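User: Can you predict the 3D structure for this chain?
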Amino acid sequence: MKNPPGPRLISSDVKLGLNVTIHAFTNLYGCEIGDDSKIGTFVEVQKGVKVGKRCKISSHSFLCEGVLIEDDVFIGHHVVFTNDKFPRATNEDGSPQTDADWKTERTIVRKGASIGSGSTLLPGIIIGEGAMVGAGSVVTKSVASQTVVAGNPARELKAL
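Assistant: Here is the predicted structure, written as structure tokens:
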């Protein structure tokens, strides 16, 4: 692992591949990061997330539980993944929700895809192999392989 200067929080349950670079002010726990991947400053990667080989996760991005990133994926700055279609802080009786009170939705980013800076991805979708998501997009449904999407909500612009 290559560590540029600065503090970072990497839990003991994190599985790191070879030649992983992790920049300062990161928070990684219960996740797996593949060989030759780079994690930027101010990134959080939560439990159960798997990041493949040769990926670049740019600064200020948030990868929540339920996210799978395959090999050779680019995640731009300030990309946010979500994992709950109906988030609530409390149950109907007013009690605080716990992990048992919601279902984590899976989000998959296939090999070689690119997610532009400032994008938000809703849960339960698949970004196809080699697809590109334009900066600032809100992705509400799956994106086909080798397709460019952009906007709010993201719509197909062209095939690659």
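DSSP finds no helices and 21 strands in the chain. The chain has a mean pLDDT of 94.
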